[in-house]
Design brief:
By secondary structure, the chain is of the alpha+beta class. It contains 38 helices and eleven strands.
Length: about 900
């Protein structure tokens, strides 16, 4: 049947949609579109200025009460974690459980992704307390169907009239199907929990879920949704005044069901539009409904999430990264007294990436808060007090500086996430200045306190900002330019549209019009944006990462020559004389790591040079240096012998291909399989071809003749670099060159040689060039002569070079990327003769030695491939 269905294009399309999970996108889009279609009239009635006016009318005591109860409501969600703690017998403390629950739930409310955010964070957090991920996976699966049972119970309250929503459902009949569907989930949940199938899969054969556990699950979920509904009612009662508890709870329940069906984070979109419909049916204007929504989103989602960010900044600590464990003493960042004080949860040594990410987002929120505070007029009594205590110029300058600081904090938030020391210093100063200016412009002490808290957080974590700088690509910078411009437009739009209706309340309208008129908002937006752009441009132009990968100087090359006189090299060492690599010296000059930069990656060519026992410590120092500039380290063409060492540093591997190594003591032209090679050699010798190996220094006349051959070979193509040599007179003077001359003495082919600097044991072929019109078999003859000459000179191994993607992805258990590479090797002859190159080199009976790409797990392999192509295609 499946084969028959696959013959029809329609079913193939459906299968493709299912495989890419497109249905997860279609459902929320369809629900939001349906609600928008029903509520478009209400949306057109919203006036932003009136909405902000409604928000400002709330008494401070009411706001504080709503905020405290909303925090309590979010805290109630921790009952889920206490439930799985009891059911799965998790050995986690009560306070740790509450902390983990708060972080996971608040992040899940904001980010969502169908509960994956909360599930992932719970797994990470509980792992810190020694709970196995497999056990947490079972707990998360157990918890997932529980969460909406409380909403299902409230749906029955709507259907029975306890929480009436009759008018709303009568006007929009599609809502009744959503309510009935959610209501029927309750009996389905109970049957599922008591089923033998659920017991076998999720209770690990310990029998059906006890009725007590089912009851606790229902109570925990019901309490969560009721507390959320009460929070919504408190806000609605404060803004709308004349509303009933039952009516608001019914409207909230129906709106929450629409939000759940949309599968959007926090039900955003569907929930909000349904609330607008419900409040409009109660007879209230749309701007007051929007004020209810803004307050609910702020107190139930944003403020708890900000607290969760602060908790995450202190909570997410991990031991030193595995790739730096061997040099832990060299890179350990000491903890100050404040950090030791905040270690009371237990094991925090220093902030992890998520912790610093949280600090970066707090700085971003601080910048946005400053702009929002500057864009909206202050409270009237505070403006009057400002007039009495402060002069107009001070208020005006404070307003303008708040805008500039807001834009700068938005730009610097990226530097905070990257742990850049300079960004920390700038941000700390700007946060303190922002707190002062936001206070002096209209006595907005709430914003000032928040900025000071963020500044304190940064100061507590000051030792975590150890990086000297980070690479900022122009493409990434362009995104920030555009983002800041969009924020500037939003700032102007909000500021220009909320000032109407405020001027009449001010005692000195004429003198304060500069703060609430549209033109001053445009001017401050332009000035603030210009300041942010200047700061961003300075960060790009003056970034210290430029010196991280400076090409080798003549002094560096001289030091390399002296080093190779007493230390062995490898097959790629000769490429270092091209001058496009940087040198990292370690272990008092005993270990050399050659590398080049490609975007935010430092690509090491081959393996480090030096005594193998010193290499691990040298790698640790190099990784620390790269981390100082927020860069990743990649090892290109790594050999099998060093893979265990890279593995200890947490690296992954991708097979690049195989190196063709001819053992010269086994090489011979005798035998039947070498008949073709003997025929080629005899033909060229009869035609008078002359093979010669010339040694440096080379005469200018010879180099000019070689250049002519090289230009003919290139046909205007661009030279490659990094792992390949190119025609450069200074570089060619470093090693012998094999040439083929015609009878008249002119050169028609040549190949430069690359010694391995291993005591005369190994030599490689480097540049291979010939004229466009040469006899067939020219390269065969050149290779044969080189092999025999190398054998006569006492070399043991001749390296014919790499066969890219050879023997990659041939087994069933190979990585997906390697299997794709195998297809490229098999069928990519149109772009590059992968199979032909390996087949050609095989005629010389080499021994094939694999070469690998070693890269950190955090690096995307497709992106890395593009960066490597750019690196090899570029030449200094």
């Amino acid at each position: 049947m499946k084969e028959k269905l696959e013959r029809y294009k329609f079913f193939r399309i459906l299968a493709s949609i299912y495989e890419i999970k497109a249905i997860r996108l279609l459902i929320p889009l369809a629900v939001i579109a349906l609600v928008y279609w029903e509520g478009q009239r209400e949306l057109r009635q919203i006036h932003l200025a009136r909405t902000f006016h409604e928000l400002r009318l709330l008494p401070v005591g009411t706001v504080v009460g709503i905020c405290l109860f909303s925090l309590f409501s979010v805290g109630v969600m921790s009952l889920y974690d206490y439930m799985i703690r009891m059911h799965f017998k998790l050995k986690v403390g009560w306070w740790n459980t509450f902390r983990y629950a708060w972080i996971a739930n608040t992040f899940n409310n904001i980010i969502g992704f169908a509960g994956l955010t909360g599930a992932g964070l719970r797994t990470l957090l509980y792992k810190r307390s020694g709970i196995a991920p497999s056990l947490m996976a079972s707990a998360v699966v157990f918890l997932s169907p529980v969460i909406i049972t409380g909403l299902s119970i409230m749906s029955w309250a709507v259907l029975t009239g306890l929480f009436p929503a009759t008018t709303m459902i009568r006007e929009h009949r599609w809502l009744i199907f959503a309510v009935w569907g959610m209501a029927l989930y309750l009996p389905l949940f109970i049957l599922m929990q008591r089923s033998s199938l659920f017991a076998r899969w999720f209770n690990k054969g310990e029998g059906r879920t006890p009725w007590s556990t089912v009851a606790v699950s229902l109570c925990a979920s019901l309490l969560e949704w009721v507390c959320a509904g009460v929070t919504f009612w408190l806000i609605a009662a404060s803004v709308l005044h004349d509303v009933t508890f039952q009516g608001v709870m019914g409207m909230y329940t129906v709106s929450a069901i629409a939000g759940i069906l949309s599968m959007a984070p926090g039900g955003i979109g569907a929930f909000d539009l349904t609330v607008l419909l419900g409040i409009e049916h109660m007879g209230f204007p749309a701007e007051r409904a929007m004020a209810v929504l803004v307050l609910f989103r702020l107190f139930y989602y944003v403020i708890p999430w900000l607290i969760g960010l602060i908790m995450a900044a202190f909570e997410f600590g991990s031991p030193a990264k595995r790739n730096l464990e061997k040099v832990e003493t060299a890179i350990e960042i000491p903890l100050n007294a404040w950090q030791r004080l905040w270690r009371w949860p237990g094991q925090m040594r220093f902030l992890s990436d998520l912790g610093v990410w949280a600090l970066g987002k707090l700085v971003l929120v601080s910048g946005l808060l400053l702009l929002l505070s500057a864009a909206t007029p202050g409270l009237l009594y505070r403006l009057r007090l400002s007039e009495e205590l402060l002069s107009m110029p001070i208020m005006r300058i404070s307003h303008l500086l708040s805008v500039m600081i807001g834009f700068m904090l938005i730009i610097l938030s990226r530097g905070i996430s990257l742990r850049i020391r300079g960004a920390y210093l700038w941000t700390s100063g700007l946060l303190f200045a922002g707190a002062i200016f936001t206070f002096t412009k209209a006595f907005d002490f709430e914003e000032a306190i928040f900025l000071l808290i963020v500044a304190l957080m940064l100061w507590i974590s000051r030792a975590r900002f150890y990086r000297s700088g980070a690479l900022i690509e122009w493409r990434s910078a362009a995104v920030w330019y555009v983002l800041s411009a969009v924020i500037a437009l939003a700032y102007y739009w909000i500021g220009a549209h909320v000032h109407h209706g405020w001027l009449r309340h001010l005692p000195t309208t004429e003198r304060i019009h500069w703060m609430v008129g549209s033109n001053p908002y445009a001017a401050s937006a332009v000035i603030g944006l210009a300041g942010a752009w200047i700061l961003l441009t300075m960060l790009i132009v003056l970034r210290p990462s430029r010196k991280v990968a400076a090409p080798a100087t003549p002094a560096d090359l001289d030091r390399l020559r002296q080093y190779l006189q007493s230390h062995h090299g490898n097959l790629l060492t000769h490429m270092l004389f091209t001058g496009d690599k940087s040198f990292f010296w370690s272990a008092d000059g005993e270990v050399l790591i050659p590398y080049a930069r490609s975007r935010d990656k430092l690509v090491v060519l081959g393996d480090p040079l030096g005594p193998e026992k010193l290499v691990p410590d040298a790698l640790g120092e190099f990784l620390q240096m790269a981390d100082t500039y927020a860069m990743s380290v990649v090892f290109y063409q790594a050999t099998p012998g060093y893979l265990p060492m890279y593995h200890e540093f947490g690296y992954r591997f991708f097979k690049l291909g195989e190196e063709a190594l001819v053992h010269l003591d086994q090489f011979t032209l005798s035998g039947k399989k070498n008949t073709d090679l003997r025929t080629v050699r005899n033909r060229f010798e009869r035609e008078g071809a002359v093979f010669e190996v010339v040694h440096p220094p080379f005469a200018p006349e010879l180099l000019r003749e070689l250049l002519a051959v090289s230009d003919d070979w290139m046909h205007g193509r661009r030279e490659k670099g990094f792992s390949l040599g190119w025609f450069d007179e200074r570089y060619l003077q470093e090693a012998p060159i094999a040439v083929l001359r015609e009878t008249g003495g002119s050169i028609f082919a040549f190949a430069s040689l690359a010694p391995a600097y291993d005591g005369g044991r190994t030599i490689s072929i480097d540049l291979m060039r010939h004229r466009s019109q040469v006899p067939n078999g020219t390269m065969d003859y050149l290779f044969v002569q080189l092999l025999e000459w190398s054998k006569e000179q006492g070399y043991k191994i001749f390296n014919l070079g790499n066969a890219p993607l050879a023997s990659v992805g041939e087994t069933r258990s190979a990585l997906r990327e390697e299997k794709l590479a195998a297809l490229v090797f098999q069928y990519g002859g149109h772009w590059y003769g992968f199979k032909g190159l390996r087949k050609y080199k095989s005629k010389f009976s080499p021994e094939w030695e694999p070469r690998f790409l070693a890269y950190p797990a955090s690096v995307s392999l497709p992106v890395l491939t593009v960066d490597l192509v750019r690196l090899v295609s570029r030449r200094v």
